[in-house]
Design goal:
Length: 302
Amino acid sequence: MITGNSQPRLIPPTRLRVKAGFVVSSPEDEDKKIILLNEGELVALDPKANNKVVFKIHPGNLVGVGALLEREPVRYIFQATTDSTITIINDECMESELKALPVWLLAAIKAISAKTRRINESIRAAKTENPLESLASFCKFYSKDEILQKQLLLQEFSWLTKTPFPAANEALKTLIRRKMLIQQANGSTLTVPDPRLLEIFADYLKTQELELPWLPFKLTLQQKRSLVWLSTLAPETTMDGSAWINLFKEHHLEVSVADWLQMQQFEWFSEKENNLFALNTDKVNYYLLSLQYEPNLKGTVK
């Protein structure tokens, strides 16, 4: 005969009042726990970025679910910004609660937990497989000769793209070595000599990744001469195809119909109404800059 209480013993969660500045959880804690904020406010600080505030936690929100249920590492320091009230659910408390649940509900929780884990893994994964290409694209949005703080640039890039800091640092060294970013004498600041060059470099890396030809490096000598001459014309110069071919010939540049069609593939001209073609100065300069910085793009610069 069974006597006594056969119900599993429940271990209640712990409710605490903490002062502003109190650290309620950190990556150094050995015990894993879920923290429910009842009153006040918490912030998540990133210890790998000089304790930069990543996000805030408001009443009713939970943190630490992945750490407790999935044994994931704790990435952030959670600190109270005001006097707050929190509820802590530790291992023993969670285990006692789970034992009291029906089997079907426990299975549902496990399924949800597995889905959450897959989502988290996707979020943590780097958003690019090529940190160098990604960093070049990231830096192209800065202004010419803008002063950049090297460490802050790396931290922001790593955070936004989920790129590991060492890989981001190696990519930055490559851009400096290829003179696409200029490191100042103090070693802590950088400047962007030409944002367009960074854009071109990102495009170049993409074609290499896809094993496609980089068209600026495939130009014939005659095409290069034509390109240089086109760069001297007024932007948006417009005429029909025959007039363009005749104009080339007047400047001792033999351009056949086939050459003309290929120049359109290079996007040196924009087709307008009435079979007119306008000079695409932006694309012409793109090709010129590619040729001018060929050693930088290829990595053979000295």
